[in-house]
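Subject: complex prediction, re-run

Hi both,

The earlier run crashed halfway through, so I resubmitted it with identical inputs.
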Amino acid sequence: MGLLRKIFGASAGSVQELPMGSVTVNAQGEIVTTTVSSGYSRSLLTDIGREVLVIFREAKQAQLPLAEISINFASLRVTARELRGGAIIFLLPQSSLMPSLKK
Amino acid sequence: MAAQHKILIVDDDADWLDVCREMLSHLPTKPEIRTAGAGARAISMLDSQPFRLLICDLKMPKMDGLQVLSIVKRRFPDLRTVVLTALEDEEFRSRAYSLGVDLFWLKPDMQQNTKMFLDCVESLLGSEKNSGFRGIQSKSLMDIIQLECMSRNSTMLRITRGPLVAKIWIQDGELLDAEVGNVRGEAAFHKILAWKSGTFENLPAEPLRERTIQRSINALLLETAQSIDETTEPAQTEFIERADHRKTVWRLALLAAEGAEFVITVPPEGQGKSEAWGTPNAEQFAIWTRRAGEAIKRLSDRIEAGPLAFIAGGSMERRLIMLIREQKTFLVAWPTEIAEGELLEKTKKLVASWDS
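This time it finished cleanly. Structure:
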């Protein structure tokens, strides 16, 4: 019994889940609403919101105001629209064979 | 009598496998055609019996074509490989070629140009020759063209460098034509020969191609070699200045030809200064490019979503594409009239040509 527990009881390494859904953040970077699973770390969503706002604000300061941005990682697309100082952010996990922006 | 070669086709679409089997059965050497509905099945078939050629789809469940090819190229280095896919994306093409694939063909093209496809497959089967060299390393394009011409060959060389595609037509060892983008003839030939790297494939000759190059191959190669020597002479400031001037003119012309509004290039922090073409706000835009890059790097570290492919942005005035390359980040602005679907490919093409 003890032997079986040793074999099967060990905790397996976990893979970080990618977020899917939308997040609305206000101008202070606080999450207002979200449809992302509650199982996904809230602090990670806040970080995503904060970095997106940094990109929008820096763009405005550089006289390059943007209404939307899309950050395309190999396995996640982050699309954000500027919303009166805040932003609505869409998170969409990507498969390597999904159609690209081209179509 | 020559041994009958075997071809293995992998595709998850059973109807397509039937179409391919029927089509390939018309090859002059009458190869034996076997099929597999999944990558794992194909690999086990390759393990159990020798095949000459593998024709592989890309989009398959569980194990996709690129995974199959990377395993196959490692385990069966002598196996010739063809990608046959409906995915019309230059990125997949370059990824497939970087795995050492012999031929990349789109399914719709195959249906339209069946004869050419069959010719290519037949030549890959190498019906009579089991020996010889495949692939040429450490040889310039100039060497390859010289070899083709000296052997009095007839072929069409298709050369790919990132998203750029060029073609050179050779008939009985004579240059007929060259084409890259909208440029044809000698000008295209010189442009292609300036490329330092890329991949090439020999396609069947097109003897009816209109002849635009009249001068001899030796004269053209000599002229190109001289011009390359001149631009790489490091000791003379005058040459460097002239090359810089030419580079600026080339880049501005490229910007105008592609229809981009401006381009900013930003090297990593402390590794040189940023450069801009087509905008007076270079410094501000470069600062934003760098800061946005840093923000995305932080994001990437935090969410572990794999490498960054590109960043797109837009406003009422313009659309932006940011591509982060090893040596510098490119920020390219496009007018809003350009279709969104074309932006990424156009940006990749412009970036690939930027340092030509």
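The domain at 17-93 of chain A is CATH 3.30.450.30 (Beta-Lactamase).

- K.
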